[in-house]
Design goal:
Largest sheet: 5 strands, parallel
Low-confidence stretches: none
Number of domains: 4
Mean pLDDT: 84
CATH topology of the largest domain: Alpha-Beta Plaits
Strand content: 5-15%
Oligomer: single chain
CATH class of the largest domain: Alpha Beta
Helix content: 55-70%
Length: 503
C-alpha cells in the first residue's frame, strides 16, 4: 500500500484527482493539501511515497515545495501539474528529478500511466532495499559472532546501524540445520515460506558462516509452528538448537553458542528434532579419554586379534558413557583416534594409501556423519579395512617371492603393453598394495622401472645388432619411435642414433 499526497490550491481539482486515484487504486492512502506549506506539514506527518503538486499556489508554490523536499532524507516521487504549457516550468522540474509533467485538465490515462511507472520503480527499489538490508544485517551479525574483540558499546552501535531495536522481554536464538538436499539460501527461503506472514516482524533470520539458518526472536511460539511445518515433509531431515532466553543484545554471541551447542546433540539423539540448551547445559566432560584402549587398537592392527580390536572399540564407543559426558568428550575421542591411529598409520604408508582410504578426511570430523550410529559403523569399517591392509602389507614384506615374481614377469614381458594393473593381477595383489610395495622394493615407481628395463635392453640391441632404430623401438615395447627416442634421451642424455655411433 502506498501513500499519495495531492497539492493544489483549487479544491475541485485536488478532490477530483483524489477521487480518480481512489477508484483506480482502492488500497492506497490519499491526502490533500491546499498549498506548499500545508503540503510540507502533511509530508512531515504522513511520509507520502508519491507527491502530485500544482505549480502556481499561494504562500509556497510547487517549485519551492520541491526544493524544500530535496533537502530531506526521505523524498517522495514527484509529479508536476500545471495549467501553463510553459517550458521553463518543465525545465526547472527536470532539474529536481520530477518523474513527469502533466498539463491541466488532468488526463486520466496519462495520470495512471505515470503512477504505474512510479509504482513499479518504487516496488523495485523497496525490494532492493530489503535485500541489501538483509545482506548487510547478515554480514554484520556474523561479524559480531566471529569477532572476539568487540565490546558492548561496539555491539550496540552495530545493532543501531542495522536498525535492530532492543528486546525488552528477552529473545532466543535458534539454529536450524538440515539434510544435504536443502541447505543455505534454499533452507532460509523455505523457512520464510513456512512461517506465516503475521510472524514476519517477530524474527530476524540470516545464514551463519556454516550456511545454517539462524533465527533471533522474542516469540518462542515460532518454534512449534516451524517444527510442525517442517515435519510435514518426511523426506526432509532437519534439526534445531535453541538457546536460553537472553535480555541484552550484547549477549548474542553467548546465546548463539548455546544454540550451536544444543544443535550438536542432534548427533547423539537424531530423533529429537528440537534440542534446548537448558536440557544439556549441565553436562561436563567427566570421563578421562580412553587413551590406553586407543593405543592398544593401534598396536593390534595387522595382527590376528580382530575380535579384541572390535571389543576395545565397543568399550571406547560405549554410548552410555558418551551420553553422560558433554559432546566435547566424543569430539576429543575422535581426535585422539585420528592422531594415534589414522594419521600415524598413513604417515608410515605414504600417499599411495590415501587413494585406497578416501574416508580419512571424513573420519576427521564426527559431524561429517548424520548421527552417532552412522559414525560408529563407519569407524568400525574403516578400522577393519586398515587392519586388513596392514595384514597384507606385512605378508608382502615377509614374502619377497611376490616381488621377485613381479620383477621376473616384467623382464620377460617388457616388450608387451605392460602396466601396473596387469602385473598386480598376475601376482594376485591389490593394485594399491602392489604399487606401494613395488616402490618400497625397487626404490622406483612402476613406470620408471619399466622404462629402465626397456632402455637397458635397447642399449644392448643398439650395440650388438644391426636392427634399425624403429625396429628396436618396437622390440622393447614402444610402438611409436618418437616416444622411444624421447625416453631414451631422457635416460641416456643422447639419442639412440648417437648412442649407436659411439659404440
Amino acid at each position: 500500500m502506498y501513500k499519495i499526497l495531492i497539492v493544489d490550491d483549487e479544491k475541485n481539482i485536488r478532490q477530483g484527482i483524489q477521487a480518480m486515484i481512489q477508484r483506480e487504486y482502492p488500497t492506497f492512502e490519499t491526502f490533500i493539501a491546499a498549498d506548499g506549506l500545508d503540503a510540507l506539514e502533511c509530508t512531515e506527518q504522513e511520509q507520502p511515497d508519491i507527491l502530485i503538486t500544482d505549480i502556481k499556489m499561494p504562500r509556497l508554490d510547487g517549485i519551492q515545495l520541491i526544493k524544500e523536499l530535496q533537502e530531506r532524507d526521505q523524498k517522495p516521487a514527484l509529479i508536476i501539474l500545471s495549467g501553463y504549457d510553459d517550458f521553463s516550468y518543465a525545465k526547472e522540474a527536470i532539474k529536481h528529478r520530477v518523474k513527469d509533467y502533466l498539463l491541466k485538465p488532468v488526463n486520466r490515462k496519462e495520470l495512471f500511466k505515470t503512477l504505474n511507472t512510479i509504482i513499479e520503480e518504487l516496488e523495485s527499489n523497496h525490494k532492493m532495499t530489503y535485500q541489501h538490508m538483509d545482506e548487510y544485517r547478515a554480514s554484520q551479525l556474523n561479524y559480531i559472532l566471529l569477532n572476539p574483540n568487540l565490546n558492548k558499546e561496539d555491539i550496540h552501535s552495530l545493532f543501531k546501524k542495522m536498525q535492530i531495536g532492543s528486546y525488552p522481554d528477552g529473545y532466543y536464538v535458534m539454529i536450524v540445520d538440515s539434510s544435504e538436499e536443502l541447505q543455505g539460501v534454499d533452507l532460509l527461503q523455505r523457512i520464510h515460506e513456512l512461517l506465516p506472514s503475521e510472524l514476519n516482524g517477530n524474527y530476524l533470520s540470516f545464514l551463519d558462516k556454516d550456511g545454517r539458518t539462524v533465527l533471533i526472536t522474542a516469540n518462542v511460539q515460532i518454534l512449534p509452528h516451524l517444527k510442525e511445518q517442517l515435519a510435514r515433509d518426511r523426506n526432509f531431515v532437519f534439526s534445531v538448537g535453541v538457546s536460553e532466553k537472553a535480555d541484552d543484545l550484547t549477549e548474542l554471541k553467548d546465546v548463539y553458542n548455546q544454540a550451536e551447542s544444543a544443535l550438536k546433540y542432534h548427533f547423539l539423539y537424531p530423533r529429537s528434532q528440537v534440542i534446548f540448551y537448558e536440557k544439556v547445559k549441565g553436562k561436563q566432560e567427566i570421563s578421562s579419554l580412553p587413551v590406553d584402549l586407543i593405543n592398544k587398537i593401534s598396536n593390534m592392527l595387522g595382527t590376528d586379534r580382530e575380535k579384541e580390536i572390535k571389543s576395545y572399540l565397543l568399550q571406547i564407543m560405549d554410548f552410555e558413557v558418551i551420553s553422560k559426558n558433554d559432546i566435547s568428550y566424543l569430539e576429543n575421542v575422535n581426535k585422539e583416534i585420528n592422531e594415534t591411529i589414522f594419521k600415524s598409520f598413513f604417515a608410515r604408508l605414504g600417499e599411495e594409501s590415501l587413494e585406497t582410504f578416501k574416508l580419512l578426511n571424513k573420519m576427521s570430523e564426527i559431524y561429517n556423519f548424520d548421527n552417532f550410529n552412522d559414525y560408529f559403523h563407519a569407524l568400525e569399517d574403516f578400522l577393519m579395512r586398515i587392519h586388513e591392509y596392514h595384514k597384507q602389507m606385512k605378508s608382502v614384506y615377509s614374502e619377497q617371492k611376490y616381488m621377485d615374481k613381479a620383477i621376473e614377469y616384467i623382464r620377460e614381458n617388457y616388450h608387451k603393453d605392460l602396466n601396473l594393473a596387469v602385473v598386480s593381477n598376475y601376482i594376485s595383489l591389490n593394485y594399491s598394495y602392489f604399487s606401494h610395495m613395488f616402490k618400497e622394493f625397487t626404490g622406483q615407481n612402476f613406470v620408471d622401472y619399466l622404462k629402465m628395463v626397456r632402455i637397458e635392453e635397447a642399449r644392448r640391441l643398439l650395440k650388438e645388432t644391426d636392427f634399425k632404430v624403429f625396429e628396436i623401438s618396437e622390440m622393447v615395447g614402444y610402438k611409436n619411435p618418437k616416444q622411444f627416442a624421447r625416453v631414451f634421451r631422457e635416460i641416456e642424455g643422447i639419442s639412440p642414433k648417437e648412442y649407436r655411433e659411439t659404440k
